[in-house]
Amino acid sequence: MRGYKIFSGSANEEFAKKISKYLSLPLSNAGVKRFSDGEISIQIDESVRGKDVFIIQSTCAPTNDNLMELLIMTDALRRSSASSITAIIPYFGYARQDRKASPRVPITAKLVANLIESAGVDRVATIDLHAGQIQGFFDIPVDNLYGSIIFNEYIKNKNYKNPIIASPDIGGIARARSVAKALGLDIVIVDKRREKANESEVMNVIGDVKDKEVILVDDIIDTAGTIVKAAEVFKSKGAKSVIACCTHPVLSGVAYERIAKEALDELVVTDTIPLKQQMDKIQVLSVAPIFGEVIRRVYHNESVNSLFV
Questions:
Q1: Labelling 252: which of 83, 92, 142, 282 has CA 20 to 30 A away?
Q2: What does the alpha-carbon distance between residue 159 and residue 1 come to, in Å, rounded to a whole number?
Q3: For the chain, how many structural domains are there in total?
Q4: Does 96 carry a binding-site annotation?
């Protein structure tokens, strides 16, 4: 067979090392440098001619730098005669700009998809895209995995007495319903109205949470405003405890200060984005083995369907 190699950008090197360990395959060597004016330079330090290559790079903050790293590394590998290039993008930045929410604004997620394809990527694998329709922005295969696989197992092992799944807003109902169905639990919904970007207001709870262990499910936790306000409302309605399971810990601005408040008992996230700081209240689950298995199956031309269950 042709053989394959895995490369890592600088966004989340620990995550790449976990994938490397899962596959028992060392990370290949590439030098990432920055010039004094901020330009990025990448040197592929070994032959990739005829190889299937996988680049591991979340496009998290600094979003633009990490995106450019991905594009430049892809170009370098393509010009080095790699047989195929798969971009493993655990966190897909700009996914929240997936439509025209007001006049005269771009659809940046589509632009990013165009850039990734133009650079020479043949396939993309990610997890819990903020908007699933982003897969349709690409003309190449896109595997959008589900974080619920790992969260469901975590919730089962906690042995809650009276749990209920919650969606922090109307837009997250499908995600919460999927988890609730898998676990055989009921669902409640928060009626939320957002006044400004990065600001949210929790209005009301649709459903009964009295004396229940509420499990909030969402794809992204950014400033933590939505999650913490939802937790406060649930507690005011008599919830016994509130935990949140969020795939991507963006955690910008005052997020850590908000999480420290008493309303939220626990935050469970994955390692798609490295945490800026550690907190006892934050538990991190690794999805690296899932992506490692994706790489193995893609290389061997095996189906990845079972990884979506």
A1: 142
A2: 46
A3: 2
A4: yes
